[in-house]
Amino acid sequence: MKAALIDGYIDEPAALGVPPYISQRVRAIAGILYAKGIDVDYFTIDTVRKKELWNSFNAYDYLILHGGLTTPGHYVGGTPASFSEFEKLLSLNANPTKIIEGPIVAGYSLKGGRKAREVSLDEADALFTKELDLAKYLGISIEGKAYYELMNEFYKLGAAIIPQHPRYPDIIVEFDISSGCERRDKFCSFCTESLLYGNFKSRDFKGIEEELQALKTAGVKAIRFGRSANVIAYGYDKEKDLPNPEAVKTLFQTTSVILNPEVFHIDNGNPIFIARHRKDAEKILECIVKYNTVGDTISFGVESFDPTVRHLNNIDGTAEEIIEAIKIVNEIGNVRIDGVPKLLPGINLLYGLPGSTKKTFEIDFFFLKKILEADLIIRRLNIRQVMVFPNTPLSKRKLPKTNRGVFEKYKKSVRSIIDKEMIQKVFPVGAIVRKVIPEFKRGALTFGRPLGTYPIL
């Protein structure tokens, strides 16, 4: 039997699958198919568009469409699949069993600032938000087995599709080290992490090691610990509220030994967790800076500096704790190679949440200016509008109207005043950015990026 697996790409709070990234989820789907003895041909949605393959999958037994965005952004290396493109693929390929899998099943939108549209794809034979539901559908026994006990095997098998990626070997593997959120109280009103992944779990080391060996066999040269809501919390004992620097050390050391990656980056870290567990967090950050590669970013889900917004949306901590975490990362991570820092914080800001007013923009700008004037460096600022998903606490609440003009004016001020100066601090004159991959041309000018957490522009 044979399956066509079409990667429409994902972007979640703690996972990215838009090229040059290949997500852990699409690899797990491939692993599930391989576990059932089904051969897999892997296509990206960009390949389907470029080669006009819309009706090319009727000879397959299965057509699996994977994708969905819960934290949409701007992408350089690929364009996520649209709802209409999935509909087109379903309608033009009548023969195979057609399955839609991924965050798109929980709700669809390509932009923030709106409610995610509930998905109804009538021509699909099955819809799943989670990979293990697909495994069950295909007849794999999952009862009585722990999440990572199952996923470890699927990840390991799924590594085999990596050489089929059209950008191979210039891709970066999004790697799973934990799932769920480590918070001990309620979760943020808007977040899909707990909705999609449940309670916090650190992945067992044996499973990680076996997948790393499979990635080595597949020729992987770049890896990011992106499938984690908080890298600093790997191995965290939630009941005792104890971080685990030794577990993190083993994780990074082993990855470095097995893969010897050209690019070794992380993604998310909780600034409040860092501020409240300072000693252990410092040890963990020192370990990361020892083993990671240059140009890395630890993304802080600040969302808002406005205390009213934070309170009404159950966003933990204070602006002061966030600034403390930014200081800690700057002190440890601003070690430079060729003029480029090894690790700096990034900030995510979210607008349109309950409690937001015009004053929210002023408060956020005040704190961004404060960070700049304190000579602290931010690698990048993401400014998004909230996307509301069914079954999140936010879906049951009324949202304030965001004044588009005020929002755009604020964004312009941040980009021209904060971003411009920050980027000059991150990449001063004389800094060398190595192994740049050309992405697109604008006139005579070619824009490129190295593999890694974030492009410069």
TrEMBL record:
Superkingdom to which the source organism belongs: Bacteria
One Pfam family, short name: Radical_SAM
Gene Ontology molecular function: catalytic activity; iron-sulfur cluster binding
InterPro entries named among the record's database cross-references: Elp3/MiaA/NifB-like_rSAM, rSAM, rSAM_sf
Ranges of residues in domain Radical SAM core: 167-424
Official protein name in the record: Radical SAM protein
Organism: Kosmotoga arenicorallina
